[in-house]
Amino acid sequence: MDFFHTLIALLESTIRVSVPLIFAALAGLFTERAGVFDIGLEGKMLGAAFAAGAVAAVTGSVGAGLLAAVLISVLLSLVHGYASITQRGSQIVSGVAINFVVAGSTVILGEAWFRQGGRTPALAGDARFQTITFPFAEELRGVPVLGPIYANLLSGHFLLTYVAFAMVPISWWILYRTRFGLRLRAVGENPGAVDTAGISVIWMRYKAVICCGILCGFAGAYLSLAMNAGFVKGMTAGKGYIALAALIFAKWRPFNIMLACLLFGFLDAFAIRLQGNPLPLIGQVPVQLMQALPYILTVVLLAGFIGKAIPPKAGGIPYVKER
User: Fold this and answer.
1) Hey, which residues does 157 pair with through a beta bridge?
2) Is 101's pLDDT higher than 60?
3) What is the average per-residue pLDDT within 277-281?
């Protein structure tokens, strides 16, 4: 039973760590399906996390923090859209620029406003999300096998955790069962044909980056209002890049994205759990190796286990209307 409880604890950590990856990967799915590559997921998540932590600390309201996170993330998405869609600039350069600007500005603003080394004040009470306990979770906790699964894996998570997993089938339905999704995917594959049909390619791509901004806002808010009690500089720690890796690993399919994010979340949770603990037959493993394990295995998986990942045909190519 000790192994079972250890496994349950590891899977619980996996779910907690995977939530921002799921939000960010789904955000990238919308933009890349529309033909706009977005390296700036990391920056949007970080900006949203800072906005959420700062506003929640000042107002004491988790709702205000979540709204601020979404607004800042959408604003950054629109900046990326203006540079890469309207001005037809390099989508890669625009995304990287957002990452650098946000990484620096959050530290500067945090120090200027709160004088805590770039942090926001610690959040408590109504200023952060609280876990949701399902009915009879405590009473059933002692039931063998099913009790810990219900009480720890299904119950006891934050609201945004359930929203993240709900967004997987919702995203699939939007992309594959609605007119908006059909047009969005068509813009990423053959924008010229979409334009010929009288649909604005520019406006469809802007809709995609707005969807991306909303989801990245949720991811950032989760980091500072749920997973942590406030903003800490650099708290995304490369999660935006791992989300991009998960997006490619999943070949731009929503349910595969969820599985890929859970896999990367499991690797991260496993690495955290092993830090400072000796492995059987191996002994003590350096902490730095454990911290690098998710990134190492990400490279290995992308290099040799997914086969050929074919992105949308018009991805990364600015659209120029034919006259």
Assistant:
1) 132
2) yes
3) 59
